[in-house]
Amino acid sequence: MSKRSFRFALLLATTTLAGAAAAQDTSVQLEQLSVEGAALGPAVGNNLSAGDGGTAATSGGGGGPSGITGYVARVATAATKTNTPLIDVPQSVSVVTREQLNDRNVQTLSEAINYVPGAISARSGFDPRFDQIFIRGFDVLTNQGIYRDGLRVIGSGFAYPKTEPYGAEALTILRGPASGLYGLGSPGGILDITTKRPVFVPFGEVQFQAGSFDRFQGNFDVGGPVPGSDGTMAYRLTGVRREAGTFIGLGTTDDQLYLAPAFTWKPSADTTFTFLSEFQVTNTPAATFFYNDPGFRVSNFYQGDPRFIGLDQTQYRVGYAFEHKFTPDLIFRQNFRHYGLFLVGKYVDINNINEARTVGTRDTGYIREGLVQQTLDNQLEARFTTGPVAHTVVGGVDYARYSRSQRVGFGLAPDLNLVTRNYGQQFIATPALGPASRQTQDQIGIYLQDQAKFGDFILTLNGRHDWVFQDNFATPDSAVSRQDNSAFTGRVGLGYVLAPGLVPYASYATTFTPQVGLDRNGQAFKPATGDQIEAGVKYLIPGTNIQAAFAGFDINQSSILVPDATNIAFQTAAGAVRSKGFEAEATANIAPGTNLTIAYTHVDIRFVNSTSFAGESLNGNRVSGIPSDTYASFLTYAFPPSSPLRGLQIGGGIRFIGTSFADDQNTVRNTAVTLYDALVAYDFAALDPKYRGFRAQINAYNIFDRNYTTCSFGFCNYNQPATVIGSLIYRW
């Protein structure tokens, strides 16, 4: 493999681990809020438009979580495609509510999961290019485990749609296999993003933010009923405009434009149609790494160059969520989305430094990529009883298709003077692009699930059969490499109501992931398959907004790709990994604006049968970059109205990231690190009611400026230093 090809592969590898992580009354739905509800005004830390999560146009299958008070959600749809209380789901589920996103002023999807058990980000250090997340040690991004409104967000190569958290109502993280309902995906779990949707109460919000690294950002979110529609139509428009640099400097940017119009038509109480759309442009550096010296040491020589650095991505989506209730117990839903993404990336690598450390030789890469996708899910939900057993049955047929094209080119860049560091002072030619490669994939799935309650027992049983058809074209004139797969997956789980709000459970679930390519015999790789055994207990303390959960899990994934021992130029689907561990989580809303979330995870993910590209056995080694232990907690406190400090809200977070190995050979460890975040906010209505809706907020991340690196796959990179963002907010 040439150095240029190796560098390109290294960039791809940083996004891949192939098979290896409101309103206080929960009964009120936002669209039912009356003048009395609107009169409550924006509580400290809340966004009235977020309500209790009831902005969903549909009650399930993408409708999102509900029954939300502060950081606590009681009901979610992602795990079952029906409105199911979290304590009734025989699998680990976490919800990041809008209030938590607001309090932490979350800027990226990766930041959003920083306080969720079982989930980590930043495995490759600072990297704003992708929403890279690992659940229970398995990559969610490249294994197509990210969903939006219950529909898969498909990505491949460099083309992965990015998520703007400000456009999200909530995030739901389902840990463990979900193939029994969703088809192919990561054995670690899925992350489902619920889009902000129209509500039938007028509201609005505008924000201005400024912060570290020349960050300037404006956000707005407005909506309500359409005048003259007699309460049958509502709209919402959400937007973000950001201009920002990064800690790297040298002209690197983190700019974004985001617009998300949405419209709901509700001609009757039984029928709802919601149109959802998005247009987003992001500009980030295509190279975020620093040259590595031998011994897993990161130098201070940035790989990129201001003259040849940008990763410019434009994406859009249009779709709808439709629901019709034939009767209260028979509901049809159809969710559809079309996504398009186009990107251009230019990067420079330092591939060698001379012994005197005065000159770095460099090469270049140029990428043009496009991806379009369509996803459609048809569901029918029925509720009925058979003798003493109450059933909630959902069945459906879904379809997903994507087509991706890519052209790449490689060239040489002038040497970099490491003494003067003449970044951006030399002309860098754009290399010629090679022929286009193309890939298409079609997936059809049929699924059926029954949630049966009899006495104190809760049985969840689902099954699904998928057919996946994939075509690969190396060049426009090359022969088609066709790959067809089919698989049956499912889940069975049993819970028992031991006491009010206390439910122990156990479950077994399976998963599969198609793999692209051919072995040395010219045969297509069989899919990677996996299964999980999970057991745990969930507790919602009666009469409170306090809930806790504990789970132990054991996941096995087999038939993953490893180098072929008989010919290392090829791969074979013979590898296996195993992830086992346990998680503990607690969330609480103690009072308006006062919330607590706690998460602890222990993960032991190892190669069971695998070899490195050098032919070394990795059996028994830990997968690199995945910490064994993590702990995170975030607490906010809003001073009560009787306090002299009324209007003030303070908060803080602790994130402990334990040790992990820097390479799959397990020769060097990443050191453990503890990071601290902080929040200070003030509601100006406490000074005078005429200032109602005005809020000032300061968020600080890594406040003690821990300068640390993270290594995985044997490559190391810096992480984000201390960052501060101030916000001025007006809500009405």
TrEMBL record:
Cellular-component GO terms for this entry: cell outer membrane
Keyword terms, alphabetized: Cell outer membrane, Ion transport, Iron, Iron transport, Membrane, Receptor, Signal, TonB box, Transmembrane, Transmembrane beta strand, Transport
Domain TonB-dependent receptor plug: 86-190
Cellular localisation: Cell outer membrane
Main localisation: membrane
InterPro entries named among the record's database cross-references: Beta-barrel_TonB, Beta-barrel_TonB_sf, Plug_dom, Plug_dom_sf, TonB-dep_rcpt-like, TonB_sidphr_rcpt
Coiled coil: none
A molecular-function term among this protein's GO annotations: signaling receptor activity
Topology relative to the membrane: Multi-pass membrane protein
Superkingdom of this protein's organism: Bacteria
PANTHER family reported in the protein's UniProt record: FERRICHROME IRON RECEPTOR-RELATED, FERRICHROME OUTER MEMBRANE TRANSPORTER_PHAGE RECEPTOR
Protein name: TonB-dependent siderophore receptor
Organism expressing this protein natively: Methylobacterium soli
